[in-house]
Amino acid sequence: MRNGAIPGRPLRFAALQPFKISSPLPCDTCVGRTLNLCGPLDDARLQHLLSLGGIRHWKRHETLFRSGDPVGAFFKIRKGIVAVSHTLDDGRRQITALRAPGDCVGYLERDGRYAFEGQALTDVEACAFDRRKFDAFVAEHPDLAAALVEALSSALKQAGMLSLVLGQLRSTERVAHFLAEISALYTERHVSAAQPLTLHIGRHEIADYLGLTIETVSRSIGKLKGRSIIAVVESGEVVILDFERLREAGKVAG
């Protein structure tokens, strides 16, 4: 059990403690400083936002929030990768999004309860904001509200693209698409070096994300290796030998 959770009972965390505001702000070294919610804020309003929450840490595989639990806080990732997912009653899981530094998770809700689960795929550090206080703050700042709408719109577009990938691409195309997209994301958000690419995600999680079995993921990686598009080193890291061919194999637009 993670975070001391008991199945069927809401996760319990210590009360949010406000940030200790210092100069320079902790945001100055955050890769997400100019992304999503923080982008339009000057230092004064950023300090106000920081007062609504605190920084939390999770170890790999720990749960940030669980579907059906009452919404208490939502999170902006500073470090690490978070899988957003939903699990059926029979245990089958669909990962609906992979979120990186600068992204927000835990905002979508249903009747005051989290609509999805968030799990740390790596060690994670995130800003946690009290949801009610944050909503009140947003109501006073139209540019922040616009940034929130833009972030939710971006998440919706990504969900639409995942639906296309799952509905139309063959298994090897799905894996190629995933590798190309995750490589671009990790490079943009400074998660890992472009070469070799450390996935931070096991084949089990890749399977849950792409709607495949672990065996199919392994076979698809083998096919991409056989075509000299990628290589896999002993540590499990992926070396992309031909990024353009990988994009072509994954039907990545533009």
> Any idea how many domains?
2
Work out the radius of gyration. Answer: 19 Å
Here the CATH topology of the largest domain equals Jelly Rolls
Q: Which regions have little confidence, pLDDT < 50, spanning 5+ residues? A: none
In percent, how helical is the residue content?
A: 25-40%
CATH superfamily of the largest domain: Jelly Rolls
* CATH architecture grouping of the largest domain: Sandwich
Count of runs of 4 or more consecutive helical residues:
7
Q: How many strand units?
A: 12
Strand order of the largest sheet: 1-10-3-6
N-to-C span: 43 Å
SSE pattern: HEEEEEEEEEEHHHHHEEH
What does this protein look like?
By secondary structure, the chain is an alpha+beta fold. It folds into two domains: 26-159, Jelly Rolls (Sandwich); 169-249, Winged helix-like DNA-binding domain superfamily/Winged helix DNA-binding domain (Arc Repressor Mutant, subunit A, Orthogonal Bundle), CATH 1.10.10. Helix content is 35%, strand content 20%. It has helices at 43-50, 131-139, 142-168, 171-188, 203-210, 214-226, 243-249, and strands at residues 53-58, 63-65, 73-79, 82-87, 93-99, 104-105, 109-110, 113-114, 117-120, 124-130, 230-232, 238-240. The chain has a four-stranded antiparallel beta sheet. Strands 2-9-4-5 form a four-stranded antiparallel beta sheet. Strand 4 (82-87) and strand 5 (93-99) form a beta hairpin. Helix 4 crosses helix 6, helix 4 crosses helix 7 (243-249) and helix 5 crosses helix 6. The termini are far apart. The mean pLDDT is 87.
Tell me the layout of helices and strands.
Layout: H1 43-50, E1 53-58, E2 63-65, E3 73-79, E4 82-87, E5 93-99, E6 104-105, E7 109-110, E8 113-114, E9 117-120, E10 124-130, H2 131-139, H3 142-168, H4 171-188, H5 203-210, H6 214-226, E11 230-232, E12 238-240, H7 243-249
Antiparallel strand pairs: 1-10, 2-9, 3-6, 3-10, 4-5, 4-9, 7-8, 11-12
Helix pairs in contact: 4-6, 4-7, 5-6
